[in-house]
Amino acid sequence: MSKLHGLNFIGNKTESGATEFRAINPSTSQAIEPEFAEATIGQVDAAMLLADAAFDAYRAMEPKKRAAFLDAIADQIAGCDEVIDRANQETGLPIERLRGERGRTVGQLKMFARLIEEGSWVDARIDHADPARTPIPKPDLRRMLIPLGPVVVFGASNFPLAFSVAGGDTASALAAGCPVVVKAHPAHPGTSEIVASLILKAANATGMPAGVFSMLQGPSHALGMALVRHPMTKAVGFTGSLKGGRALFDAACGRHDPIPVYAEMGSTNPVFILPGALAERGSTIAAGLTQSVTMGVGQFCTNPGMVIGLQSDAYTAFVDQATKHFQKAAPGTMLYGGLRDSYETGVRRLQGISNVRILAQSQDATDAARTQVPATLFSTDVKTFLNNPVVSEELFGPATVLIAAKSAEDLEKVAQNVEGHLTATLHGTAEDLAANRKLVSILERKVGRLLFNGFPTGVEVAAAMQHGGPYPATTDSRTTSVGTAAIERFARPICYQNFPESALPAELHESNPRSIFRMVDGRHTR
Amino acid sequence: MSKLHGLNFIGNKTESGATEFRAINPSTSQAIEPEFAEATIGQVDAAMLLADAAFDAYRAMEPKKRAAFLDAIADQIAGCDEVIDRANQETGLPIERLRGERGRTVGQLKMFARLIEEGSWVDARIDHADPARTPIPKPDLRRMLIPLGPVVVFGASNFPLAFSVAGGDTASALAAGCPVVVKAHPAHPGTSEIVASLILKAANATGMPAGVFSMLQGPSHALGMALVRHPMTKAVGFTGSLKGGRALFDAACGRHDPIPVYAEMGSTNPVFILPGALAERGSTIAAGLTQSVTMGVGQFCTNPGMVIGLQSDAYTAFVDQATKHFQKAAPGTMLYGGLRDSYETGVRRLQGISNVRILAQSQDATDAARTQVPATLFSTDVKTFLNNPVVSEELFGPATVLIAAKSAEDLEKVAQNVEGHLTATLHGTAEDLAANRKLVSILERKVGRLLFNGFPTGVEVAAAMQHGGPYPATTDSRTTSVGTAAIERFARPICYQNFPESALPAELHESNPRSIFRMVDGRHTR
Fold first, then answer.
1. Chain A interface includes B129 (CB < 8 A)
2. ipTM attached to this prediction
3. I want to staple A215 with a disulfide (CB 3.0 to 4.6 A). Which of A145, A196, A299, B424 is the partner?
4. Low-confidence ranges of chain B (pLDDT < 50)
5. Percentage of chain A exceeding pLDDT 70
């Protein structure tokens, strides 16, 4: 890999831009070379027009060609160690974690490659004609999913590989047949440049049309808004803050022609600890909780930010143990200074509520130059939570609030009063679960994933995963941003009526040449 | 059936309201008894709270119980002749057409009943655990679709049965497990009351919870907005005008927690007549087009409102024949005076464009007291269309615009310059289609359904139907409002991680007790 050039990628061309910026190493607070050129609004237009021009050629390609492109990206990334080093400098995330994340990124790309090679995701449906039907003949109808068009992806800060330039949004959009224009996250521009170069190398090696991928650099919000508002943009993928995601969503809804914004905006992921579990293994839960909250310096969308338990001796013992674990937890370097500032503000805001108190913080001193924050354990009661909805808002970082409940009804009241979250977790015995059916039922209406006796961090990439939940967890609870179903976000159905086979996509030919699962005259068949 | 009471249905209770209004018989311009009470904002709140209270009990029911409810509604409607008479008085639609529409309504309800009895629509996915996996064990993940919550349905004027109180939106939402609150269309309040009574009779006979269905009367926009903005409302179904649909969409996007609005807002449904078809059967197409445009007085979302053909002697002959057919077409009674006024305004607006001319109008005089309008055939050329986008906007009623093109490029230019539509149609020979692949490709990006050698009116209710298209045809091109896939609009996925079987829905039990198609460890299986 050659030296970083700091330019924007408009298809295969690299271009300078307007003002320049540099990445900051959060572990040292020092700026890192080189300077990166923020893209201009004119470059937004150029990238989107090029993506639109590439769309027809790209979507017309056989799935195995698009799969080869995804595989080539995966192979490029798998073979690149430089990106790990640069990501480590730009994010402060440990090398080992970044190696794991690279594996996940490669795995996601290959998962989508296999998915489109297999082909059944297009949900093909055929209803045969019945010319003899009265009073009117029945037409021949053939329906399948086709790609939406150019997609804009916003790189996330907290997964500089797996949810960034070649992350899940990009992989699923490219798999669906959509060209992608990435707005790189300004906290890791060098990592983004390296990955963009690898994607373009893969695109050229596999004969993809120019414009199938572009990437623009820069911290400006105007740039993001221009991408969302561009007439050629047909969908948006975003992972980040509620404020940021909502701004993009509002811009998309305000377009002449509104487009879907899949914004995953984080979550507080309530954890309910039921009496049986507390009695059986309160100390294990306290240790597991601390690990889950502090892992990755708490910078996961699925970080468990509130824990509700029934007051009892076992609960008191659990709280004591969690307190000790949090005191011993090491301070951690956050991804960038802005997140550290938000965390500190959030801690102060919670502290300012009467009846919310800090039980524990990391005992070791934090180093401001290393952008460190302490792990923080809060406690409060149900009444305070109910009067202060801010307690259930996401505090991004290694913090959680313990909420003491007095009764099963209290647990239900808390559940009823949280907004949408990505996950909720129950710790309990089988008897606990049977005794708390109503709590489960309430939580089903609030979240996308319900866990039993586990922790929500660590999101499995699988067909059965659901990473998405009711607002404000996401802007579209009907979709997931992790797992194979993520591809459905970037497609829509089209129906061909009485079309001759010569003009139909192969997926809808009578002989099923792609051997996909289809619904034919109401029957699932291959 | 007893006399109409003119009240609102808040669950099983009937209530008066604020101001009163009456239906107008468009065939006589006379008001019809009785007076109907417009619902109050307080009643919006009551209906939505009741729907929310019914939700848990309703969604927890076995699918066969919900299917029995849908079947009971279907049977009630199938056995009711009074609703046909009242609909005839309130809409001016002929008895025969309304009988057909009743059949369609009954068929839709039964289709969704069978769909949920069969059960595979929940898209169940299971990924088994692998406790031995390194570095971390793989959890057990089980995912399926669950209902969104209370749904608000706006009755459409042009299908007083099939897209109104017990129409496709209500049927699919109830099938998904969502309680429904209907805002009745003010042009047919009596028809709506009869159908609401039948639904409640069915609900009580099959043991449904109070609040599973409510219906509010009234013409006020404030009422509709209050329903969309109510915190308990989780999705909205609407069929009507672009202006109305967009207003609801904007209100839903502006909520604290945005919700999906499935607004089907009509369409101009371009028809392209290719040279081979014109030469082979120009006169058949002219007759078929006239029939499609004038059927139901042109009051279908799939009415073909623009027709593009290549200039030639055959095209001239086609135009002449269409002209004669339109002259002979009888004037027709529109559904209500407001639509007649909009049609007349729209005709004048098109007439006002230089180079747009009226080739033909129904020769027989129209009767204002019968709310009649003439069928109208316009003609213009590609240049005029390109300079006046209004030509491709929907003119609701029995009108179409013939657009003369000079070349295949002209056809493509027109296709490229239309916005989203529900359908597009090609008339041609197999050779025509082969020679116009680019035109087909352009149209795939513009519509939800592509027809070959047919007419877009007459929307088959089937698994492979797609009734929905890019904006402004609908607010969500990823969904359909006709066919079995319409149920997906009212559901979202939930994933259970490591849940004991006793706390899982039956659809996710290991033994597959409901015998549904599932994806288990990546394989489709029953």
1. no
2. 0.97
3. A196
4. 1
5. 100
